[in-house]
Known about the structure:
The structure is a single chain. The chain is built from 3 helices and 5 strands. β1 (25-28) and β2 form a beta hairpin. By secondary structure, the protein is an alpha+beta fold. The chain has a 5-stranded antiparallel beta sheet with strand order 1-2-3-5-4. The protein binds guanosine-5'-monophosphate. Guanosine-5'-monophosphate (5GP) is lined by residues 12, 23, 35-39, 94, 100-103, 123.
Amino acid sequence: MSLHGPYDxxxxxxxxxxxxxxxxxxxxDNQVLVFMDAFPQSRGHTLVxxxxxxxxxxxxxxxxxxxxxxxxxxxxxxxxxxxxSPEGISLMQFNGEAGGQTVFHLHFHIVPRWSGTALKGxxxxxxxxxxxxxxxxxxxxxxxx
Length: 145
Ligand code: 5GP
């Protein structure tokens, strides 16, 4: 997938938004959904997506949508810090297949980091235990301001 092209309304995140496949939700409002990455690169790896835009990547997104997405990302990162006490947080966002993107619906990754704990490879983390994911999502949601 290049940087430009039609939005595939059957991509995994579009299907999650339509409720066709399950996800472990952290929180949502009328514009964004925040949920746990099913193949986390670290414990607490969270994703932030827009419910209202069909932007595939950063280049395509409407500035007002981006503004709300970034505020939602900051709100979530603050809750991740409170809930999980990481020593650092990596914010990641990939554009186009050559840029490392695998799901072509714009999203931000919030990846908690601890020194001495190596990051798992992007998309190579193995599937997380859904029970653990649910507990993490509840911890993060409880820490939201
Ligand atoms: P990208 O490579 O596009 O930046 O990130 C896509 C992310 O979606 C990856 O981190 C991957 O682990 C995650 N992912 C892929 N399939 C699913 C899924 O079915 N459910 C959830 N929650 N995450 C997924």
